[in-house]
Amino acid sequence: MKFKFAALIAATAIAPALSAVEPAIPRDEAIESRVEATLAKMTLEEKVGQMTELVLDIFGAFDENGEFQLNEGRLDTILSVYKVGSILNAPGTRAQTPEKWQQIISKIQEKSMQHIGIPCIYGLDQNHGTTYTFGGTFFPQNLGLAATFNRDIVRDGAAVTAYETRASNCPWTYSPTLDLGRDPRWPRIWENFGEDCLVNAEMGAAAVRGFQGDDPNHIGPDHIAACLKHYMGYGVPYSGKDRTPAYISESDLREKHFAPYLAAARAGALSVMCNSASVNGIPGHINKRFLTDWLKDGLNWDGMIVTDWADINQLFMRERVAPNRREAIKMAINAGIDMVMEPYDPTFCTDLISLVNDGEVPMSRIDDAVRRVLRMKYRLGLFDNPDTPLADYPDFASDKHTKVALQAATESMVLLKNVNHTLPLPAGAKILVTGPNADTMRGLNGGWTYTWQGKLQPADFNEKNTILEAMQQRFGADNVKYAPGVTYNNEGNYWEENEPDIDSAVAAAKDVDYIVACIGENSYCETPGNLTDLNISANQLALVKALAATGKPIVLILSEGRPRLISSIEPLASAIVDIILPGTMGGDALASLLSGDENFSGRLPFTYPREINSLATYDYKVSEETGTMEGAYDYDAVVAVQWPFGYGQSYTTFAYDNLSVDRSDFKAGDVLTFTVDVTNTGDRTGKEAVLLFSSDLVASRQVPDNRRLRAFDKIELAPGQTKTVTLTIPAESLAYVDANGNWVLEQGDFKMQAGNKILTVTCTETTEL
Q1: What global pTM score does this model have?
Q2: What is the DSSP secondary structure assignment for residue 373, as one 8-state letter?
Q3: Residues 375-418: pLDDT tens digits?
Q4: What letter does residue 133 receive in the DSSP assignment?
Q5: Across the chain, what does the average pLDDT equal?
Q6: Can you give the pLDDT at residue 457?
Q7: Is-contact 582 412, C-beta < 8 A?
Q8: Parallel, antiparallel or unpaired: strands 686-696 and 748-754
Q9: Looking at the DSSP assignment, which residues form a beta bridge with residue 70?
Q10: Is the pLDDT confidence value at 626 over 80?
Q11: What does the DSSP assignment read for 293-357?
């Protein structure tokens, strides 16, 4: 399945008749029989209840000690009257201990079985590890995982997250996020696997298999249901602001934005969450073409679609496509929504029942939605075992899991610059660690970390190291000074900083050999993360410029959820490392890399912009070329950026040779197998992400993309070692979608490139797929 998603797109994007499409998830007759038997016994009220999801906060309150307590009377009332089938979120968006989650969710399951006879499906945003469980294992955010170009790391991290989420008695996570982060202004770019559709597709499928295991019909007690979000086109808002409209061409929708969802659905994902905003003027929650025609019917996918937070209400409050809630509910359910994350008002049920009784929502649509909800619960085994006791999960937060997170963090960090071998730092060096991200966990984790916005208290991670603490442990406390110069106002908005003290940092640099300046962003999430200026803050720019004036070599550490512009200070740094958002093990991983104990292997999964008026992705249209890009790793591109997609240095060097293909001429239905020899020509062991790109030299129906990533793999080589890497792609992956939505594999030449090696393959005939 590694490189076949493009062929799947070609085969299914035109939405053929349902019977002609193999089910995305194999049909299990035993499960279907149980679903039908349960459905046959249900009243309309019970069916509508299963389509309803409410937030935990309405079922209890915090006591005088700050501990959340369920109100059993309220729980009894809402479940008995409205028959609600799902509950979500952490109380006050604050993490709980595994023991507390066991107490809360087991009580909910007890009451659900008592009042409805159907288990509740509880959902949490476990987005980079156990987001909402205290003490659990945290991984890099998805953007950092993408930088590893290592599918195994993504799958292993998702498997650990699933295990530890089940330790909290929770069977469902709203992850992975597959929006395509193609606009660096957007505040949720770090939740995705970068700008490329293949990377998102491959990593998304790996995450689904990690969360759910290999059999989506029988998800065991160590796994959870995945939820792909936010379907689709959410990641490219025209304004760059969260939850605002996107305008996407038909070709980009089918060819790029749909690709990750197709691959992850084929991997067995049980649920999908909808886009909160609109695409081409149509809100995601009423887009029947996307929800039903493309996803459900087009893929013969029998999973469940849930709304995002309160988005039915936004159809009449923000989008103004409906005059009131009743009409909004009708539009969304008829378009293909199966479960509504209301999340506060259970009278949603009353409105939907009324719509059914009045004939405005057909019972067939209700039954279809409820089948999908019940099917997911049966696949999770919730009817047989609603609870998963904590005692069954002895590896929760274990050293074994921590090692997985450390490896992920290590491979996620990208060495962008290393003039005169500034790195690794020598033993015994005197080092100043400075900047607002030097001694904080917020800058390592980002949002969705114990709280929605990631506003952590120091004690939350008292056993984990900040960058400063890790540097002191690795290089010796006597060798590492600390003077931040700039600090965040952690009580304010994410961009707010305290009055700087740059002079103290400059003074501290007097007697050191190196300056490690940790700059970037404080944590944020969703709409509160909107910005008006992509440049790094003025205080941080001033800090780096003042430190550069000391003449000491600067190692610039970028800890940020999106690429903030640094073109004015990049020349001042001798070395630059983008650590993105590496999670709680990020401090240790960085110290091991800066010391040379480990080697860099990360590559940028996005294009790092140089200037605000030149935002671009690597797969730009060739007619967008405006000037020659600077730098040695430009792949002959002529769009000015700071660093290109796929860029990353190492402490060793690699040479490519003997790029070949088993057939230089091909047509639709063929499979092309490329091989290339990669040699470690340096003196250190290193890992190399081998990326295979294509360039369609002429495309008659639309301007071709400059280049596209078609396959990738990651290998490890000892000094002097050579490996032959094999990358296989279906011919259909070289097709494109024209302006009318038709897939076309067009006769002509394609330039294929791996490293600095290039060859040409030729399609011998044009085929409409």
Answers
A1: 0.95
A2: H
A3: 999 999 999 999 999 999 999 999 999 999 999 999 999 999 99
A4: B
A5: 94
A6: 67
A7: yes
A8: antiparallel
A9: 60
A10: no
A11: IIIIITTT---EEE--TTHHHHHHHTS-SSSSHHHHHHHHHHHT--BEE--S-TTHHHHHHHHHH
How many Å apart are CA 459 and CA 717, to the nearest integer?
40
Euclidean distance between CA atoms 577 and 332, whole angstroms: 45
Nearest to 106 by CA among 130, 136, 75, 81: 75
Contact 220, 591 (CB under 8 A): no
In sequence order, what DSSP letters do the residues of 400-440 get, joined into one string?
HHHHHHHHHHHHH-EEEEEGGG-PSPPTT--EEEESTTTT-
User: Kind of pairing, strands 514-520 and 431-434?
Assistant: parallel
**Quick one: which of 237, 196, 187, 235 has its CA closest to 607?**
196
Q: Does the pLDDT value for residue 17 go beyond 70?
A: no
- Written as six digits, the tokens of 590 are 């960085």
Catalytic residue chosen out of the listed positions 125, 156, 242, 308: 308
| pLDDT on residue 458 | 67
CB atoms within 10 A of CB 568: 12
> What CA–CA distance (Å, rounded) separates 23 from 3?
20
Half-sphere exposure of 66 (CA within 13 A, CB side): 3
Nearest alpha-carbon partner for 513 in 488, 481, 557: 481
Phi, psi for 668 (deg, rounded to 5): -55, 140
Q: Which residue has the tokens 């259970």?
A: 346
Strands 654-661 vs 60-62: parallel, antiparallel or unpaired = unpaired
Give burial (CB, 10 Å; 0-12/13-18/19+) of 613.
exposed
Check: CB of residue 261 under 8 Å from CB of residue 232.
yes
Sheet (strand 686-696) strand order: 665-666, 757-763, 748-754, 686-696, 708-717
Cα distance between residue 655 and residue 722, in whole Å: 9
Helix/strand number for the chain, H first, E second: 21, 29
Which residue is associated with the tokens 């740094």?
573
Pairing label, strands 722-730, 736-737: unpaired
Residue type, 270: L
**Alpha-carbon span 561 to 538, nearest angstrom:** 18
- Using CA atoms, how far apart are residues 603 and 608, in angstroms rounded to an integer? 11
Distances (CA, A) of 187 to 228, 617, 755: 18, 17, 32
The string of pLDDT tens digits covering residues 728-741 is 999 999 999 998 88
Tokens representing residue 208 in the block? 């689904």
Q: How far apart are CA 729 and CA 546, in angstroms?
A: 51
Q: What is the DSSP letter of 39?
A: H
- pLDDT score, position 9: 41
Amino acid at 679: T
User: Which residue is listed with tokens 């719509």?
Assistant: 355
Amino acid at 554: I
Cα distances (Å, whole numbers) of residue 424 to 420, 580, 594: 11, 19, 5
Hey, what's the torsion of the CAs at 190, 195, 201, 203, to 10 degrees? -40
311 is catalytic: no
Give the phi and the psi of residue 718 in degrees, each rounded to 5.
Answer: -80, 160
d(CA 517, CA 548): 10
Strands 575-578 and 414-418, bridge-based pairing: antiparallel
Q: Which residues pair with 133 in a beta bridge?
A: 96
Q: How many CB atoms lie within 10 A of CB 79?
A: 24
8 A C-beta contact, residue 704 and residue 622: yes
Residue range 323-376, pLDDT digits in tens: 999 999 999 999 999 999 999 999 999 999 999 999 999 999 999 999 999 999
H or E stretch covering 610:
none
Which tokens in the block code for residue 203?
A: 């990593």
Cα-based distances in Å from 440 to 65, 434, 454: 27, 12, 11
- Residue 211 has φ and ψ, to the nearest 5°, of -65, -45
Distance of CA 740 to the CA centre of its chain: 30
Distance separating alpha carbons of residues 118 and 111, to the nearest angstrom? 10
Strands 575-578 vs 736-737: parallel, antiparallel or unpaired: unpaired
